[in-house]
Each structure stands twice: as structure tokens, then as C-alpha cells.
Amino acid sequence: MRERVRGRFVGIGVGSYELMQPLQHAVSDVRELHALLRGYDGQPLADPTEAEVRTHMRELCRQPQEGGALVALWSGHAVLTAKNLRLLARDNTGEHDGIALTDFALWCAASGAHQVLIVVDACYSGAQLDEAVGTVATIQEQLLAGQVHWTGVLVSCSSFETARDGLFGGKLRKLLRVGPTADEDAWRWSDRTALVDGGAVGTALLNAWDSDVQRPRFMQYGSAQPMLPNPMFAANTVVKHLLLAARGGDSADNRSWFTGRTDQVDRVVGWVRSGVPGLRVVTGSPGTGKSAVLGRVVSLSNPAERDLLLTTGPSFRHADPGPGSVDAAVHARAMDADRVADLLSRQLVAAGLVPAPEGPRRGAAELVGVVSALTAPPVLVVDGLDEARGESFSIATSLLTKLANHAVVVVSTRQAHRVAGGAPLLTELSPVEVLDLDDADDEADVREYVVARLGSRVPQSTVDELAKLPFLTAWMITDQVLADGGADLKLSLDAAFERELAKVPSARALLTALTWSYGAGFPEEEWRAVAEALSGEKFSREDVTAVLTELGRHIVQDGEEGTAVFKLTHQTFADHLRPPFSPSRDEVFAPGAEKVACALIELYRQRLRAGVPPDVPGYLWKYAWRHCGHAGTRALDGLRALAVTYRLLLPDIALAATTAANELMHWGRADEAIAPLEEAAEHFRTLVPELRMYLADLAFVLNKLGTRFREAGRLQQAVAPAEEAVVRYRELVASTPTTAESLTHKRLAQRIAKTTPHGSENPTYVAHLSGALVDLSDTYAMLGRRSESLSTARDAVKVVDSDAPLARAMTCLATRCGETGRRYEAMQRSKQAVELYYALAQTNPVHLADLVTALVELSRDHLALGRLSDADRVTRQAAEISGALGRHAAFRPQLADAALSLSVAHSLVGRTGDALATARQAADLAAGLRVHAQALHNLMRRQRDAGKPREALATGLRTVEVCLLPENADRLSTLAAALFTLDTLCAAIGQPEIVDETWDRVTARFTGPHLATLLMLRAAATRAGDPAAAGWLCQALTHVGQSRQTIHDVHDIARRHYDSGPWPWDSLPDWLTVDRSLLRTARAWVFARSYAEERAVLLDHPELLSADADVAVTEALYGTSLIEAQVMQSRRTTARRQGVVLAYRPWLLASLADEFVDATPARRRTLLATRREELLDKEVLKNVRDNRPVHALLLLASEDTGVVDLVLEALEDPARVTEVLRGLASSASPQALTQAVTALEPHALAALYKAVALARAGDTHLALPPHDQRLAWIHELTYLVPENLHLLTVIRKLAEES
To answer: What global pTM score does this model have?
Structure first.
């Protein structure tokens, strides 16, 4: 966020005149207003002459400010001459002298300020008001074109009135000292914003004016931004939602009505004061007081609110948590995991517990990393987790459960369930303790609350009725009694809401719009825009004021990025206005989301056209992308259109595209997710070299993209993003600089193969790295690259040491060991996975399904080793756990997976009956889930094994129909497997025509690559030489399109059939008759794991460079992506022309550059010792030029080896960095010192030591650091002066500036 420019104050007060009556208050009015304007530079000018005023104002123009705000106040006499207002200085007579108001306005306009407020307190000051505003606006349009600007002119009276001395100035100061009095203005001066805009001040003064002596006037032009101190601002206050909940309502005197609930508060206080990490939950039905209980504890922890509670509220009987007991609190409504993390982080930074993030925000994974490094667990409170709607589970799993390992995390939430099924929210949270408010008998507490609010004179029958209600309903009805003088005590909560909505005609539309806001809420302009888009009506400021005035108790006024924002007080009311949306495959995005997003994008466009920069902090800059991501294609198109002109919005497109892709993938429209994922990856890759904060986003998107390609069977396309995801996560873990360049597949693979993790320098992303390695291992395995899949799985295990990521990695390694014939190791690894999942399942039943799957894999391993009794024992154990899982009704997806795995295990150990029974259970559980077709196919096989061919046939046909559903269009492997099983089944019962008819029905439903894949799989399943296969493969080739993987597979299968003997292919293409030995050699070259191996193959087999090998090489290259094939053909062409050695030289040097970048300091030292000449080659320097520290290190190696050794020592032991730099400041050359500092970046004093190098080189121009760093510079320079006396001049300059 850009640093705010200090404002300027121009105050001219003339109270003493040579020839006119004195004014008692003119000078003091100016001085007192100046005292109120904290953060404004400039001294008032008291009783100046006209010449002094003109000199003062011209100086203002000669030294213009760079943006910021200007407040200019003139207080004194004025005269109206020929309709021109002239402001009179001390020596003016008012006849032919004085300063024209338009001249005063011109000087202010030329000051360089972007926000200009001119205040004139003088008789007749309303004259020429329009001209003054127009003058400043015209000048600003010329000087500040394309930049946001605003002008306001506030005068003390009209053009025909005289002004009473001191009246206007006193009321203006009162407004800036205590805030507005009118309700409509008080709602807009949020106590959460430090500044208010000039427009709000002018409007509030007019609305509060109560004198008949004179009437001020105010005009404004442009876009008003916060500029004046807000007297209502309360720093370091409690989250507004928690504050109001804890007080039991809102009141003018901020009184607390919290009563009772002693046991519940005591329980939470005990959690907060325990100092024991873990996640605790307060839960209960809507309206039971979850937020009130947490808010009470948080409020008593906050010093300011604590003092208020102790002095104005009733005495409390519960335990006192003590001041400062809660370190950070957030209300999670309408937030995602990264936003919750960022808000928690800001409070922890402000408390001095964690360092500030490198970028403008701190995401979930990074927050977990920094909190894990703390010596004492912080106390974090998250209220309303269920109110995050679609993000609740993500916040729970990606942030809160991970923070709970290192912090005391207290969460309030209702129970919530995934639309698609699975573990409920409380189970995912896996709390160590739960406080359920539904278990409490709170009638006495509600009774006490009602009496406290309504007083003892209320009829006992009313108290008795209200005491039976939940706290929220009691709060609403007591509010209605207090506001309206009566209420229907028999109303349901929904009926009470409807009664409230009936009070204001525009209430339903405006309050419904608030349910769409993110963060702390909508600013007023965004609020109206969304309401108008959803309702088709127009709403004015007066409509908003009416809702705030009549229904303000249902609205939280908060502040975000310096602007007042609004959201609903209670989620229950939000749900009444807009019931929670249940997405599905047919309707992924919520109805209305597109209208909301498009309305906000249109508002964004209008502001941009008005000159407001896109990155001005505000709601649209923070949340427009999220609205677009949750709305779909049309809204994204609007954001893309803005980014064409405003490149600062590129990250927003990437983030929105990622969000949309996640939604599409989750609801079974994965093919539609590929394009936005590719777009997001492209943008993030562009951004990362300058903004490293997006590296984690890039890695995440690449991993998702690789997984998506793999699931769609596009294995060649899956490799590159999967490999790059691993490289990017390694850069995050090792904290190494990155350029995020798009590398070739082989270069990525070499970086993966040659790099070992750097001792977990940054543990934040270790689990993500392990997960990406597992995904890459699976992709390699599916491509038949077994050696690489095994080594990658081993790396996945190495980088983590506990919990679910290690269990998943261990399961992957067990599978890879089994695939490569390492059966005993596979069994041992499976045992370790079982032990890990068993430990995890003890605290969270979510992992029971994983445990069943791990046991089934262990059973397979025992069978492979011939240990039948062990296999049988493990299978029975899996069955017992699966039964336990079945008692958790919410676990249908996990239970379906477990039953499916268990059915296979029963089959493996020969328990046919159990296998069939479990298969039926799995098929029933999987109905409507992603694994439904797979479960049906398994049932079909179990029925076949049990001697029930007719049942198996019916199930097989049903399996095919399920596979043909739109949501299963990309799961061709299951469809093909079902058809193959159906083929053998129909052959066994003597009805082959059924499978032929089914195949015809299936192929009629597909076109393009999907059809080609099915035909290819059908040909692959037939006996070699089957004449029918020729027709299927010929048809496949006509539909294959640009799918190189399918072409590769079709050609391979065709060659297998052709090699078996005579085969009826219409013609003999060269790819069919290609020399098989030459093809094997070409494949050895293409699939070599490194450039060195590639070069060796070509040196040993020069025949690959001949034209006779072109067909073999082309066929081998079909096994790679088009880009990789083009690159390899280019290398082959260069090798033909220049020779193999020269052709591979730049590629081998690029590989060496990658190895040096990824290496540890110790490994870099070894490489410099053994391959120095190559590392200093210009080709290597070109490859690392964007990586400034590595580039500097290599340049240093070519100039001063002694300095390089010291730098490497400092890199190995970061504690020595300052010591090394102090030594080099006097011993190394200025150039070597500069390179050493760059090689050691990032370092807090890097800029200082670069300045020292410049000073030693004789450069007298010193770039001063920010004010808050100058004392640190002076302190460090004192260590350097004894050896560098000329640095005294630097210290002197710093001291003078400070």
C-alpha cells in the first residue's frame, strides 16, 4: 500500500485591521483549527498584510506537494465589489484592494494537493462559490489528469449575509472535535476509520447547523478521499460484531447489557488462559449467544473496551481473562482462509509477536509458518466460522486446524455440512474441547437480560414470555419494544424479521444487498450499486439513511481501508433475506452473483475513468476479483477488459480465474476449469519475478493444472505443470529467489532430480511440496516412468516428518515400491502409512477412511509376498474400522471409498461373499458421488466372481449409463474398463452382440479425442492381429485431433497388431513400418533424463542424426508435448549442423545454472571449486541474470575469491551476515562490497552497505532511508567509522535530516 503524503495547512486569520473594526475570534479560530489537524504541516499566518499573504501563497505554489491533502482557511473581513468577493488583509481598506477569492482558490489549486478543502469564514463569503469550485476543478483537471482529485469549498454564509465573529469557526471545530450529531452523518463517520473525507465534513456541518444568524454553504467536485482526522476513531478496538454481541445490543452510551452465562464464559476464559495449543469450539443453535460469549472474553482482553465494561456495565460474576489475554480476533463472515489469516496477522504484527509480511498481505500457509516459530502460543479467536458460507471448510482445514498445533485457537460456529457430503464442520475442526450452548439452561440469563434492558416496570407476563426465547430473538423483541413501544411476543424469529422489514419500503432490497459483501462490509456507494443491480430499482442517499435510522440495530457500521462500511449484524437475518445457496453441477455459481459482480466492475470502470487509480485502497481493489471468481465467465470478462488498460489488475484476474476454476472442478465441470487455470498460471508467472508473494499462488495453480490434466487422461500435458509446481514449492521452502521463467520439461525434471530440500529453511510450504511431489509421482507412474516416480515418491517422504502429509507420501511410496518389484519395502512402507493414519484417526475420524484404504494396500502387499494369513487379518481389521466409520452418517464419500477398497481386499483374499456384500454397500453409498461408476464396475466384477453373470450384466449396463453422464465425460478409463469386463462377461454367457451394441451406443455419444481414446482402448484390449482392430484404429486416427498422446498410443497399438502377422490395414504408412530398433534408440534419446544423457545417446548413435531416422524420431517425440518436441528437434538440427558437443553446450550450461541456483551454500562452494570455468561462462550468467543474488555471487567469483568465501560462510550461517559485511566495508573494493551485499539479500541493512560502497567510491549523492530506519543506519555506521573516517559525513547528513 502506498505511503500517505502528509497534508498541508494554510491558515490566514486577520483580526486586527488598520482601518476596519477588529475581529476577536479570527486568529484564534485559525490557530485552534490547525491544532485539530494532526499530521498537517504549515503554520498559521496571523494578521498579515496583503503583500505577506501574496508572498505566502506564491511560496505554496513554488514548492508544490506531491499529492496528499490541503486545508486552506481564511478568517477575516471580506467585501463584495462588483459581484467579486475580496478577502481583506490587515492593511486593506476594501475599496480597491484585497485578494480576490478566485485568486486564493487558484493558489490552492496549484499547490499540488489532490484533495483540496477551502474554508472561508467572512461576510458575503457565499458569493462566487460556484466560480471558486470551478476554478480549482479546472486547474486540477489540467495538472492532475488521470489522477484522483477532489475540491470542496465551505463558506460561512451566503452571498447576502454577514457572518458573526466566531460562530462558524466554533461549530466547525466542534464537528472536528466530537463528530457529527445528525444520525445520517453519524452512521457514515465510522469509529473504525482514522480519517474522513472533506465531503463528509462539509455535509455534516450543514446538516448540524442550528443557527438563524447565518447559513453556511458547501460545494464539491471530484472524488473525495479520506483526509481529515476522524474524532470518532477508536484505535485497537474489538471486532465490531463481537463488540456488539458482547454488549447485548447497541446504545448511545456504549452500555453493556451482557448478563449471566457465568459457566460458559468461565470455560472459555480457562481455554484462553491455559497456554496449551489446540482448537476449542463454542457451538450451538442460531441465536444462542456464541458471539456474545466469545465477544465478552475478547472485550475484557482489550484495554479500551475493558475500561468501559468495568465502569458502565453491570458487575460480572464470571472469571476475568485479564487485559491482553487475546492476541487476535476476527469475525469470519464472508471471508476466505487467506483473508482471515491476513486479519489475524495484522493484529499479531501490531502486537509485536510476528514480523510484517514481505508483501501487502499474508496468506494462510505463511501465517501458519510464522506462528509455528513463536516460543509461546498466541491466543486467536475466530467468530462465526459457519458464516463464511462456502469457505468455512477451507478456513477450517487449511488454516485453523494447522494453527491449532502452535496456538490456542477458539472458534465459534454452528454445525455445517458440505453440500456434496462428507465430514461435517465440527468433525473437520477436530476440537480438543467443545462448549455446546444448546446444553445450557439459559432461561434465567435471558430473564435477567430482558429486565436489565426493559426495566422492572415491564409486566411479569412479558418477562416470562421473553425468557423462553433464545438470546437473539429476545434481543430483537426487546429492541422492538424499546423502539416502537410494543411488540408481538408470540412472533417467530422470521416473523419478527418481516415486521422489521415492513418499516422501510427500501429495506428488503438494501439489506439483501449487504448479504453479498465480503470482508467488513460494503461502502455506501458499492452497497447502492449492488442493491440496484439485484432489484432493478434506484436508491438514493436518503433511502440508505432511512434504513440506517430505522433499522440500524441490524447493521454493523465498521471501517475498512479508511472507509465506513456496512454489513448485517446477524447471520440469521442474512439467511432470512437470502437463504444459503446449495451449488450443484448444473448451477455452480449462486444466482445473483453475476449481477453483483458486473455491477461492481461497472462501478470500478466509472472510478477508473474518473482518474481513481485501480490500486487506491478500498473495497473494489480488495474484493472485486473475489466477486468475479464466484460469479463465472461474464464477470471475469469484465475484469479482463479493465486489465487491458490497467495492468495493475493482472493479479486480480489470476486470483479470480483460480477461484472460478476451483468451483468448476469441485462440482464436476473440470474440463471448463482448465482454461482459467492456464490463464492464472500465465499471469502469476509474469508477476512472480517482481512480486514474490504470488509464488505460492503460482505453485498452487500449477499443481491443480497438472492434477486436472492427469485426471482427464492428458498425461503429456500434465507433466510440465506438475514438475514446475514442485520446483516452485522448493523455491518457497528453500526461500530461494526465483524468476519463475517457463522452463522446458527436461530442464524442470533435472532441477527436481538434482535438488534436495534445504533443511526446511521455510517450513510453511513443506506439506505443499510433499503433496506436489506425490502428484508428480502419480503422473510419472501413469506414464510408465517408474524410476522417476519412485525417486519422486522418496523425496515426498523426505521433506515431511509428521501428520497427514507424511501418511499420504508414505502411501504413495508404498505403491511405487510395489510397482517396481520392491515388495518387502512396499509392505514396510504400507505398515508405516497404517500407523500414521491410525494415530491421526484417534483425534479426527475424518482419517478413518484413509486408514481403511491404507489397510487394504497393506493387505495387497501381504498377498504379493504370499502371506495369506496376514492379508486376511489386515482385511478383517479394515472391515471392523469401516463398520465404525459407517456409524458416522456424514461420512458418505469417505465410507464409499472405504467400502470400495474393502471389497477389493475381500476379493484378494478369496472371501467372495464378503467382497460382494461390501461391493453392494459401496455402490449404494457412491450413488451421486464421483466414484459411483467405479463402485458399480467393482460390483459388476464381484457379481461375476460370485457366479451371478446375469446380475453382473445388468450392473455392467448400468455402469456404462452412469459413465455416460455429463459429469463423468472425462473418466474414460472407468468406462473402458467396464466395457472390457462386459466383453468377457458377454462372451462367457454367449451373447457377444450385447457388448457390440453397447460399444456402438457409447461411440455414438463421443467425438474427437474422447472417441479416439475409447477406440484405441478397445483395440488395445483385443488379441494381437484382430482384423476389427484395424477399423477401430483407422477411425481413431480421424478423431484424434491434436492429442499427441493419443496419436502415440494409437500408433503403438497399431504396430503391435501389425507385428503379429498379416493385418488388414488399407495402406502402409511409414510410421507403421518404421525400423523398430531405430525407434527404440530414438526413444532412449527422447526420454533420457538429462541433457548429458541425451548427448551421450547421440554420440553413441550418430545414425539418429541422419534423415533415415526422421520417422523414428518423430514417432518417439509423439510421447512428449509439442513444445518439448520442437525444442528437441531444434537441438537435433543444431547437432547435425554444428556437431553434438557444441549443440548441447548451452543446454548443459543452463542445467548447471539451475543446479547452482538450487544448491545449498555448501554445494555452491563445491561447484565453484570443481566447475568454476563453466560457471563463469557468459551463458550461465545470462541464465541467472534475473536472480540478482546468484548473479552477484558469480560476478564476485570472477573478481575476488576471498570475498566469495566470506559470502558463502555468511549464507551458511545467516547470524554472521552483519559481521561479514562490517569486515568487507573496509577490506573489499567498493564494487566487491556492492556485489557481496546483493549476494546476501534480503538483509535489513543492505541499502546501507550499498550506500557505504558508493561513499567509498567517491559518490557524494546519498539516497536517504525512510525516517524510521535512520537511527539504525547511524548506529551501524558507528561500527564502520574507525576504518572509514569519511563515513562521518554520512552520519552527519543522516543526523541533520533526522
So the answer is: 0.75
Q: Express each pLDDT in 1233-1262 by its tens digit.
A: 888 888 888 777 888 888 888 888 777 676
Alpha-helix residue ranges (DSSP H) falling in 590-649: 593-609, 619-629, 633-645
Is residue 1238 within 8 A of residue 1228, CB to CB? The reply is no
Residue 2's pLDDT is 45
Q: Residue 161 — φ and ψ, nearest 5°?
A: -110, 155
Q: Which CA distances in Å does 860 have to 781, 811, 919, 1074?
A: 18, 13, 17, 41
Contact 386, 357 (CB under 8 A): no
Res 618 pLDDT > 70: yes
CA contacts within 13 A on the Cβ side of 721: 27
User: How far is Cα 237 from Cα 231, in angstroms, rounded to an integer?
Assistant: 15
Q: How far is CA 832 from CA 156, 601, 853, in A?
A: 81, 52, 13
- Give helix 823-843 / helix 848-864 axis angle, nearest 10°: 160
What percent of the chain is predicted at pLDDT more than 90? 36
- For residue 1240, give the DSSP letter: T
DSSP track, 391-415: GHHHHIIIIIHHHTTTSEEEEE---
Please report how many Cα atoms fall inside a 13 Å half-sphere around the Cα of residue 83, on the Cβ side.
3
Q: Class of 7-229 per CATH? A: alpha beta
Q: Quick one: pLDDT band at residue 485, thresholds 50, 70, 90?
A: low
Name 802's Cβ contacts closer than 8 Å, sequence gap at least 6: none
Single out the residue of 1185, 1191, 1190, 1188 nearest to residue 1160, CA to CA.
1190
Strands 69-75 vs 45-46: parallel, antiparallel or unpaired: unpaired
Q: Concatenated DSSP letters for 1164-1226?
A: HHHHHHHSHHHHTSHHHHHHTTTSHHHHHHHHHHHH-HHHHHHHHHHHH-GGGHHHHHHHHHH
Region of poorest pLDDT, from 91-105, 981-995, 1279-1293: 1279-1293
Distances (CA, A) of 18 to 91, 647, 1251, 1281: 6, 59, 56, 59
- C-alpha distances in angstroms, 116 versus 10, 541, 614, 695? 11, 24, 21, 40
What the block records as the C-alpha cell of 974 is: 472407468
| Identity of residue 610 | A
* Grid cell of 966 as nine digits: 455429463
Averaged confidence pLDDT in the chain: 85
Category of 162 on φ-ψ map: left (φ > 0), alpha (ψ -120 to 50) or beta:
beta
Q: Measure the CA–CA gap between 442 and 471, rounded to whole angstroms.
A: 9
E-strand stretches of 631-747: none
| Tens digits of residue pLDDT in 706-754 | 998 888 777 878 888 999 999 889 888 876 555 444 455 555 555 555 5
Per CATH, which fold does 240-440 belong to? Rossmann fold (3.40.50)
Most confidently predicted of 229-238, 353-362, 449-458: 353-362
Q: What is the pLDDT of residues 781-811, one digit of tens each?
A: 988 888 889 999 999 999 888 788 999 999 9
Three-state helix/strand/coil letters over 441-504: CCHHHHHHHHHHHHCCCCCHHHHHHHHCCCHHHHHHHHHHHHHHCCCCCCCCHHHHHHHHHCCC
CB atoms within 10 A of CB 1297: 11
Which cell goes with 419? 453440500
Q: Is the pLDDT of residue 83 over 50?
A: yes
Q: Which residues contact 988 (CB under 8 A, 6 or more apart)?
A: 949
Q: What is the 3-state secondary structure (H, E, C) of 1049-1095?
A: HHHHHHHHHHHCCCCCCCCCCHHHHCCHHHHHHHHHHHCCCCHHHHH
- Single out the residue of 329, 169, 183, 163 nearest to residue 246, CA to CA: 329
Rounded alpha-carbon distances, angstroms, from residue 993 to 962, 998, 1000: 21, 8, 10
**CA atoms of 1171 and 1155, how far apart (whole Å):** 12
**Beta-carbon-side half-sphere exposure of residue 43 (alpha carbons within 13 Å):** 4
Q: How far is Cα 1177 from Cα 1187, in angstroms, rounded to an integer?
A: 16
